[in-house]
UniProtKB/TrEMBL annotation:
Keywords: ATP-binding, Kinase, Metal-binding, Nucleotide-binding, Transferase, Zinc
Family: Belongs to the IPK1 type 2 family.
Highest taxon listed in the record's lineage: Eukaryota
Source lineage: Eukaryota, Viridiplantae, Streptophyta, Embryophyta, Tracheophyta
Name by which UniProt lists this protein: Inositol-pentakisphosphate 2-kinase
InterPro entries with a match to the protein in the record: Ins_P5_2-kin, IP5_2-K_N_lobe
Obligatory cofactor(s): Zn(2+)
First-tier enzyme category under EC: transferase
Organism field: Eleusine coracana subsp. coracana
The enzyme's E.C. designation: 2.7.1.158
Pfam name, any one: Ins_P5_2-kin
Length: 366
């Protein structure tokens, strides 16, 4: 599908609600066009509360030009309003593996299409999502990607089961002091759908994750954040050429000496550290979609990777893709630092300072 293709009002009837996150509405294709079968459309949303920051960054500031200007495809994609697609392809796939990242393609959308789609799916959306956000009807493009919860492209394919793994961030772990844990119930429901015992399904999921190597790639990308926000925030101020507000509010002489070393780093070094921090932030905020289907014949060839589940003596094809690989705005660095301080203060107030507050590299404060 090319950029010059534009979805119009008449196409809206062929798209149904599939889900949504903070920044995007996900629609699945229900029509009959061969080129669209098995696809989902990622449509941008806007927050109704104007006091809240926009979830997406689709315009590069002059400082972001410094950060990403060495990747021409990113700079060009901003003009086409396809930054996140280019970022997934030209940045995140280099770290997470091109075979596990589907950048999709940008497709034009008309205002009439967006307004009609929003009206059609209104009753399918959770009330709290409707109250918080709406479709951005001023957008000119949407992202068309493969539906990685399917194999055949047929939504009625009952042989396929998909799992989306969302990696908990530290603030969500804190909230889990207060909310019931639903994870076991989800696994039980999945085992019912798959027809496998819970232990067998967990083994299948574990084998696929291990064989694919996706968590190893994910962890390595998360660990690009080797200065953490407490260090990277100083380099952020180096880049924007502003007085460091953290140093301004610090009276500890030893800390100030440590921070002075960070502020003495070159611009190139500062850019690399902050760039790696933002790439790491994307890796800590993404999801992993893994889909399975039992192979019909032991001797059958398949384009997909597979695992042999010994307990049921059956081969399962699988595919694993990272999703939600959006670029993080540079000016969100200050938000990350403030959130980090809230988390540290939370743990301090509960007498749990130290390892729990800082995490092990796979947990972050985004």
């Amino acid at each position: 599908m090319e950029m010059d293709a534009v979805l119009q009002a008449g196409d809206a009837k062929d798209w149904a609600y599939k889900g949504e996150g903070a920044a995007n509405l996900i629609l699945s294709y229900t029509g009959s066009s061969p080129s669209m079968l098995g696809k989902v459309l990622r449509v941008k949303k806007i927050l109704k509360d104007k006091s809240q920051p926009a979830p997406n960054c689709m315009v590069f500031s002059s400082h972001e030009q410094l950060l990403w200007g060495h990747i021409p495809e990113l700079v060009e994609s901003v003009k086409q309003d396809c930054l996140n697609q280019a970022y997934a392809v030209h940045v995140m796939s280099q770290h997470l593996g091109a075979n596990h990242v589907d950048g999709g393609v940008c497709i034009g959308v008309s205002r009439d299409f967006l307004e009609l789609v929003e009206k059609n799916v209104l009753n399918s959306r959770p009330t709290w999502r409707v109250n918080a956000s709406s479709v951005d009807s001023t957008a000119n493009v949407a992202l068309l990607i493969a539906d990685h919860s399917l194999f055949s492209g047929n939504a009625k394919d009952s042989s396929c089961i998909a799992v989306e793994i969302k990696f908990l961030v530290a603030w969500e772990v804190v909230r889990a002091v207060f909310i019931p844990d639903e994870r076991d119930k989800c696994l039980e429901d999945l085992s019912k759908v798959s027809g496998l015992e819970l232990s067998d399904f967990i083994e299948l999921l574990s084998e696929a994750i291990f064989k694919s190597g996706v968590l190893r790639k994910l962890l390595a990308t998360q660990k690009l954040d080797d200065h953490d926000i407490e260090g990277a925030i100083h380099l952020y101020y180096n880049i924007i050429s502003q007085p460091c507000l953290v140093c301004k509010n610090t009276t500890d002489a030893e800390l100030l000496r440590k921070y002075a070393l960070l502020h003495s780093l070159s611009l190139d070094k500062s850019l690399k550290i902050v760039r790696d921090f933002l790439i790491s932030a994307t890796a800590k905020d993404c999801s992993l979609m893994i889909s399975f289907r039992p192979r019909e014949s032991v001797i059958a060839e398949s384009e997909y990777d597979s695992v042999f589940l010994e307990s049921v003596e059956r081969i399962y094809d699988y595919k694993a893709y990272f999703i939600d690989l959006d670029v993080k705005p540079l000016d969100k660095m200050e938000h990350y630092f403030k959130l980090d301080q809230k988390i540290v203060n939370f743990y301090t107030g509960n007498g749990e300072v130290g390892k729990s507050a800082k995490g092990s590299g796979t947990v972050t404060k985004h």
